[in-house]
Design goal:
2,3-Dihydroxybiphenyl 1,2-Dioxygenase, domain 1, four-stranded mixed beta sheet, globular, 3 helices, 2 domains, alpha/beta
């Protein structure tokens, strides 16, 4: 059996705001759609599933995010995930200019949870609270990593 990574799916409260955030960071929208019907109910395991979706691609083609904004059933608001909670933890990106990435994040009202850390002079990184409370790790490798 072979296996290939496809994407990470994230439910968001405002798909346009989430798309704006991730495209400003450098991802591109490779597709948008609205899904519903029996096939969607079966695939997702949710009766009456109706959602707006967008697929975003990293510039190097190595990863994708699939964003969902539920129309029906109504999305359930939860508290933002904490870094030590079980379940979906974060989505992580390497950037070539962490300061520029943080400026972009700030324009969307997204800021580091605490600050920027330096790990052994090899990488600087931070977690920001992105749209819909998504934890997004941004890292700049200072040495070949």
């Amino acid at each position: 059996m072979s296996i290939t990574f496809e994407n990470v799916g994230i439910a968001v409260r405002d798909i346009d705001a989430a798309i704006a955030f991730f495209t400003d960071l450098g991802l591109t929208v490779s597709g948008r759609d609205e899904i519903s019907g029996e096939w969607a109910d079966t695939a997702v395991g949710l009766d009456g599933n109706h959602a707006r979706i967008a697929l975003l691609q990293t510039p190097d083609g190595s990863g994708q995010l699939e964003l969902f904004e539920y129309i029906h059933p109504e999305a359930i608001e939860t508290e933002p995930t904490l870094p030590n909670e079980i379940g979906m933890h974060r989505v992580a990106f390497s950037v070539d200019d962490l300061d520029a990435a943080l400026e972009i994040a700030a324009r969307h009202g997204c800021y580091p949870l605490r600050g920027v850390a330096d790990y052994q002079g090899a990488v600087t990184l931070t977690y920001v609270r992105g749209p819909s409370g998504i934890i997004v790790m941004l890292a700049q490798w200072l040495t070949a990593g």
